[in-house]
Amino acid sequence: GENVEQHPSTLSVQEGDSAVIKCTYSDSASNYFPWYKQELGKRPQLIIDIRSNVGEKKDQRIAVTLNKTAKHFSLHITETQPEDSAVYFCAASIEGGGADGLTFGKGTHLIIQP
Amino acid sequence: DTEVTQTPKHLVMGMTNKKSLKCEQHMGHRAMYWYKQKAKKPPELMFVYSYEKLSINESVPSRFSPECPNSSLLNLHLHALQPEDSALYLCASSQGFLAGELFFGEGSRLTVL
Predict the structure, then answer these.
(1) B30 three-class SS
(2) d(CA A30, CA A52)
(3) Spatial CA neighbour of A110 closest among A34, A10, A37
(4) pLDDT value for B45
(5) Does residue A77 contact residue A66 with C-beta atoms inside 8 Å?
(6) Nearest residue, CB atoms, A46 vs list B43, B99, B101
């Protein structure tokens, strides 16, 4: 089955700086790569996703890049703000065709220092 | 309505009790999921229903019994649980089976004494 590795496990950045979280996956058939944000005591919520037919996607301060050859994808957050503090999970799946659904990374605890 | 609602928010039960967790969505989604999440860990898939039929059971012990009475409702029946089953139980839904965004509920925090 799919295996997703996520780094770092904890990331502390100054407010206003950029944050980058990296994930690698093992199954070359995976074609859907979402990122979920989970604030303390709250539900996970999708913040951005990318499918294997594109290499990059942006939504305001958030961007995701995908390198299919190297089987890795990254989340980039620019101009970080205190409300960005949360745990971020990357995930991978074979959309609509896999047997196991999303495989999540272990999560990155992002801390924004004021 | 883009919400998945779960009840109860908190549940404390003994190892001999029988209880149920409930989940509801009115987005017309045809796939519904149960996940288990331990502290500081990612969600772990337990069950998936597609068009009200159980499609995936991730080798979950029989003390957890899912039920999908209709396309909007999902239950998780609990019986003879162990203390290690204490966790946050998250319900989710998606428009398609294993496809697209997962909409999570706020979860039911379960403590087994």
Answers:
(1) coil
(2) 8
(3) A10
(4) 94
(5) no
(6) B101
